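Quick one, probably user error.
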């Protein structure tokens, strides 16, 4: 698997920070993401947050919506 700075994704820390700020458990985030038709298990969310697994584009869209992450403001600066 390709990695950037030894991580499988660049968004994991941001996901973790926003989830903690909202006071959501991993299970709560997974339930809310399911309402978008995206199924993520709490273990997979853990792996995303730790940078151990890839975050697919449709997962990122749903997670940004659930966690109120402004893609254009916060995510884009991570990849620029």
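Nope, works fine. Designed sequence:
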């Amino acid at each position: 698997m390709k990695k950037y700075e030894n991580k499988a994704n660049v968004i994991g820390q941001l996901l973790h920070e926003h989830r903690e700020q909202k006071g959501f458990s991993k299970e709560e985030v997974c339930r809310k993401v399911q309402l978008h038709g995206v199924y993520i298990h709490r273990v997979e969310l853990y792996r995303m947050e730790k940078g151990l697994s890839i975050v697919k584009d449709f997962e990122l869209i749903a997670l940004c919506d659930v966690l109120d992450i402004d893609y254009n403001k916060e995510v884009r600066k991570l990849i620029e």
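The mean pLDDT is 91.
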